[in-house]
Design brief:
Blueprint lengths: L1 E6 L4 H10 L5 E7 L9 E2 L3 E4 L2 H8 L3 E4 L6 H10 L3 E4 L6 H14 L2 E4 L5 H16 L3 E7 L9 H13 L13 E5 L5 E9 L2 E9 L6 H11 L4 E4 L13
Parallel strand pairs: 1-2, 1-5, 2-4, 5-6, 6-7, 7-12, 8-9
Antiparallel strand pairs: 3-4, 8-10, 10-11
Helix pairs in contact: 3-4, 5-6
Bound molecules: NADPH dihydro-nicotinamide-adenine-dinucleotide phosphate and the ligand O=C(O)C1=N[C@H](C(=O)O)C[C@H](O)C1.
The site of ligand LZUJQKHR has 9 residues, from helix 6.
Pathway: Amino-acid biosynthesis; L-lysine biosynthesis via DAP pathway; (S)-tetrahydrodipicolinate from L-aspartate: step 4/4
GO molecular function: 4-hydroxy-tetrahydrodipicolinate reductase; NAD binding; NADP binding; oxidoreductase activity, acting on CH or CH2 groups, NAD or NADP as acceptor
Subunit structure: Homotetramer.
Length: about 250
Amino acid sequence: MIRVAVAGPRGRMGAMAVETLVTQRDMLLVGVLDRKMAEQASTIAGAVPIYTDMETLAIESKPDVLVELTTHESVYRHAQSAIKEGIRPVIGTSGLTPEEISHLEGLCRESGIGCIIAPNFSVGAALMMKFSAIASRFMPASEIIELHHDGKKDAPSGTAELTARMMADSKGPSGGKSTAGIPIHSVRLPGLLSHQEVLFGGEGQLLTLRHDSFSRQSYMSGIKLSVREVMKRNGLIYGLDKIIDDGQQPI
Ligand SMILES: NC(=O)C1=CN([C@@H]2O[C@H](COP(=O)(O)OP(=O)(O)OC[C@H]3O[C@@H](n4cnc5c(N)ncnc54)[C@H](OP(=O)(O)O)[C@@H]3O)[C@@H](O)[C@H]2O)C=CC1
Ligand SMILES: O=C(O)C1=N[C@H](C(=O)O)C[C@H](O)C1
């Protein structure tokens, strides 16, 4: 049994993750981390206790894995405390800086535990990133347009940042390692959920790679896979694409 905790259980993603994880036969939801207790309850999803600090959650519920789905303001703090408590983070929250990711990588190495940061848990988005990395070797002039619902708090999206990083890495040293070379445009509108286009311009041609999430269900398989995989791995993995082997069964 993998003992799992979820941070951000009242959120759009966290609530769906709780619903999904409680149904998994090889997982036990042992606690949730919220910043306030629910109005009149100290448990959710049956009898799962609600905690307001990581240390108490760690001591009382002893999770193996923390699924982090809060905000860019709290994810770094939660991830650091989890690793220090020997809890393996599966981070879906966007907004970690490159410096914060490097620091978490060091903490994981020191502690000898795994951590997965997946700015996008949907398999389609992971494939879009892989294909974009390949395309950028042949068509280096490119720009990213990410489009999200108007409730999204951060910009640019974590998906766009990882896509740009993978594209820059794939161009080799001359392409640079920063995302700065690849412009990212952010659109926030009601009616949208999560969408991204990567445009590659060439002489008399345009290649467009596009991914759309129409429902947050698109992320649930990736969350389940990440919880299982983080138990088998050591060190920090950045991107769902790194844990989807070529030729593997559809997730
Ligand atoms: N990796 C992926 O595939 C996906 C990632 N995301 C990312 O996941 C994150 C959450 O998105 P979404 O669910 O839409 O956002 P929501 O705003 O709906 O949910 C965030 C939740 O986190 C809670 N929260 C904020 N701070 C804390 C804290 N310190 N401790 C505990 N809980 C806290 C909020 O509580 P309160 O209501 O009190 O503010 C809220 O309930 C975002 O960063 C988003 O970009 C989203 C979709 C897919
Ligand atoms: O806030 C969202 O909704 C999403 N956030 C993630 C991101 O920043 O890339 C993943 C997905 O795009 C949905």
